[in-house]
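Our preliminary data section would be incomplete without showing what the modeling component actually yields. Below, a chain of 92 amino acids is followed by its predicted structure, encoded as tokens that our downstream tools consume directly.
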Amino acid sequence: MKLLLTYDISNTKNRTKVATLLEGYGYRVNFSVFELDIKKHKLNELLQTIQKFCDKEDSVRVYAFSADTIENSYDLNSKRPKPFEKRSSYVN
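Predicted structure:
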């Protein structure tokens, strides 16, 4: 599954823990935005772990992408990798 995960976590300590956790699963494209290429069971485990660091007012959103959507995605900075391009830091 190719996903975009975004988060807005108010507690700095928890936000740092979530960011560190996500770095093991995908590629950081912005401060609180990660591209993930992950299997469904791993996603479920990841979301359960992230939920432990979230307060009621925090937000974590996951957007799924189809092959067609990815094909039509791009980054205005041509020096950066294409969206969901394989990177050595991915863990599935």
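Helices lie at 12-23, 40-51, 67-71. The first strand starts at residue 2 and ends at 8. Preliminary results of this kind motivate Aim 1 of the renewal.
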